[in-house]
Fold:
Amino acid sequence: MADALLKIENLTRYFDISKPFLNRMLERDEKQFLTAVADVSFEIKRGETFALVGESGSGKSTIAKLVVGLLAASEGNIEFDGHKMTGTSGTEMRDLRRRFQMIFQDPFASLNPRWRVGDIIAEPIHTFGLLKGADVTNRVGELLDTVGLSAKDAEKFPHEFSGGQRQRIAIARALSSKPEFIVCDEPTSALDVSVQAQILNLMKDLQDEMGLTYLFISHDLSVVRHMANRIGVLYLGRLVEVADGKTLFSAPQHPYTQMLLDAVPDLALSGRRRKPVDGEIPNPINPPSGCAFHPRCPLAMDRCKVDAPHQVATETGYAACFALEAEAKAS
Amino acid sequence: MTDALLSVRNLRVEFPTRRGVLTAIDDVSFDIMPGEVLGVVGESGAGKSLTGAAIIGLLEPPGRIAGGEILLKGERIDNLGVEPMRRIRGKRIGMVFQDPLTSLNPLYTVAQQLIETIRTHADISEGEARKKAIALLDRVGIPAAARRIDDYPHHFSGGMRQRVVIALALCAEPELVIADEPTTALDVSVQSQIIDLIKEICAERGAAVMLITHDMGVIAETADRVAVLYAGRIAEIGPVRQVITAPEHPYTAGLMGSIPTLTQTDARLVQIPGAMPRLNAIPQGCAFNPRCEKAFDRCFKERPTPVVRNADGRKVACWLYDAIDTAAKEQANG
Structure:
């Protein structure tokens, strides 16, 4: 597809978690690897919000870091607007980097406490040499205005702001290099609900105004439902289902997606009886064989314990499950 | 009400600082009936956890109870000394904290911690205590409890650790369990397991629960009644269904509207402008007045007190609402 802004193919990242060399020699241990992201592929179209959901340890944040280049991929390809990001370096990479930015989860840790807000927001402008002199100050003022703060706040330090305001500063910084694509790694999970609503509304407004594309990462299904056009569900580093927002919530295909949706507390008090959820995410160091979800899956068959399932096309995306594959063949 | 298990009356918690006294909890009153689940919600800094800490006598100095009473079955427990309070804590009021990793001692096995707690409150032999501990672990859903009891906390996953903490809180069969954000550190799929467990096991033992959380969804699923706290004051309290489906206080209404739901469309979320005031800058009158769309003159001058709205004991602290004379209404109906 020509209009895909970000294209990820067979992305894999493992971490070496072996003991130190000497211990390994003495204890005769093998090297150990943890596969945080396994063979993940998806595309994000220009102007859309693609969300990744999953529980802790499912590899959400690792994918975010891989996409912006904070981590190097072990295998696979990341393509941004037709440019390969793996193996590119120097000026070309620098030019690419200006076009994507990241917003982090914890606004208390992602802003330098010793820098004034104005300097924090201006840093990307200086780094990419976009503006000079008084123009920088003006631009910072404009940006602060855009995110709902005032130009005077540029003189203050981060500790003078509340969590929600700090996240606004982080958004202003992300916008300062005029990016097309922003990776948002749990941007509201450190915030209270009323402040979360403000930030989510702001992010949606900015997207409408500037035509931004978001990769939105969250563990909160209702937030994802609110923000995303398309959603990918991660389990133990594997993408188990991808679908349009509406379809995923109205007709979840993969048993894990169904389980996740069932676990969301029911605010509408509809009296919907929840299916009890069994078990917990297994240890990613020794993931289960075959389909990683089989020990918790109500539909698990013998085959699920041996082979990894392939992607089966669904209405608006795909799901990786043998039960669905069997169903598709039968019909 | 005399049959309340726990009765908090006009509780006031203060923190004396060099720059003056900060009032973190201001005139909070509520009752918990035996076997009832009372949800306490609010945003960070609203005083939820402090209320729990004040009840169980674990306020960190310089915080202190500056006024009001806390009664457990009619007896005052807010003015008890260290030793009598220690006998109530654990024995009659159990506590489940947010982070299961920090509420267990990493240097002792689960067995040691459970047996110690059981034997502190009951005069039984170590062997019996161990049997009881295994039965408890089994009850909270830890597989192969007899074998796993000798493991250390780090051998357990987050959800399993929280189950151990629940077992610890319940081992002296308390009448009241205070659960302070018991599921916040857990994943959604595990969260629903833990909520179900707390609900089930407390109902089974007839223990009342005070469930402190910031998550309205958890409250909706678990609580019988809910108290909404704002800036250390109760904004609204009442049966959970009434408060969630028809919130009366503008803050509760805003809070409900700001929560994204699974069913709604792409509409904008309701947003409450601004943020909760800091403790040193709580406005005069109603604490919510700077953020309230419906605020009028009186809200800036006088502080509203909770008024009774119906016979179910629903109360709202807002000048928009008048007290309903329940006695007169009952007469009219009867």
